[in-house]
Amino acid sequence: MEAFFTYSATQGEAYDRITTCSVGSYVGIRQQMINEVMTKTWGQSQEFNQLADWKQRILLDFVEQTGLKVYTTWVATGKKEPLEAVISAATELMQGGVEQYLKLEQ
Question: Which residues lie below 8 Å from residue 30, measured CB to CB, with a gap of 6+?
């Protein structure tokens, strides 16, 4: 989460348009970018790799959509809140759910 937000916040307006769009030609480009980051990040997790494929997809969808929605909201409201505070709040909200999900699958 932190890497996504930190990277995204430094990329500029064009990146924000691609990342926050919900329809149109940018959606495919955005999904390719997200898939690449998710594969690199989660591919290194032993717990994640032990999940069935469909359970991996659920987890990735949850992380992807939640992180993207938080970032989109931050951009839409003018990036008023400090980036570090947004990262911290999003991480706290998501971390408990992800940890519990992985723990239940062991």
Answer: 18, 19, 21
- Model pTM score: 0.76
pLDDT in tens, 41-60: 888 888 888 999 999 999 98
Cβ burial, residue 43 (10 Å; 0-12/13-18/19+): exposed
Identify the CA nearest to 67 among candidates 41, 87, 96.
Answer: 87
pLDDT for res 105: 64
Cβ atoms < 10 Å from Cβ of 23: 6
78 torsion bin: left (phi>0), alpha (psi -120 to 50), beta (else)? left
Q: 23: helix, coil or strand?
A: coil
Average pLDDT of the chain to the nearest whole number: 87
The tokens for 91 are: 């991480």
Distance from C-alpha of 7 to C-alpha of 56, rounded to nearest angstrom: 24
